[in-house]
Amino acid sequence: MRLEELPTSDRVEDRRACLLVVPAALALVQLWYLP
Amino acid sequence: MVLALIGWALGIDPMTVIGGADQMLPGGGQIQEQQVPTGAPSDQMGHFVSAVLGSTEEVWTGVFTQAGKTYTPPTLVMFSGATQSGCGFAQSAMGPFYCPNDQKVYLDTSFFQDLEQRFGACDVGSKTCQFAQAYVIAHEIGHHVQNQLGLLPQVQEAQRAMAQAESNGLQVRVELQADCLAGIWGSRAQAKWQFIEPGDVEAAMQTASAIGDDRLQRQVQGYVVPDSFTHGTSAQRTQWFMAGFKSGDVASCDTFRAQEP
Hints:
The structure holds two protein chains of two kinds. By secondary structure, chain A is mainly alpha-helical. Chain A is built from one helix and one strand, in the order βα.
């Protein structure tokens, strides 16, 4: 399909970046408990 | 991620989310909406989603206007892993869904990778997969159209008085109608923008077939239980998408009057 033909919408709510915090926090916790 | 596809195709999306919203919210409370600015994301996936959504807005605004009605477009939330929704906590495992409480479509785009890689819904990495992905979004927008027309609340009301098997049967008709409405989007968008390329429609058909209840149940448990179907068989899903795509007419999507949808 040719995307360039289609109009875009401004009604997209992008929450993807917010969730990067979760794995980052988990990684920090793991690091904390490493001997 | 297999669960995401199965969950989406076997009934978690969207009506189970609709029906199960209270159970998903401890105490029945309404989750506060996250204040996230909307716009058109600049990355490739964000642009793709924005373009598909934009085309649905124009198509459905036109259809509603022709019928003397007003179409209020939904918001589409792209998320990774998990997020809050008006229907409870949304996770990737639920697959894409429409929440009528906040009138938003929720989409974890990792679902698209599963669609290609694990279920062979379209040829991995091919350009035709984009149209198959657009079909998935258009299906969810179809649920918003149903909601705007007042159909979803009526179905929910009717389902309250039904046994599970009968309720599932009604759910199948809701889902097949959303497939048909996705076909109407494809048809009308093509008439307006000529954006479809050779192989695109076949890829969407392949996708509709890959997520039929019968095919997924066979893959997961080795046998099918028709009474538990909530989205329709592979044959039904492709048939109703094509009904909408060929006609471009909402009247062709009356899955509730069809003897056998």
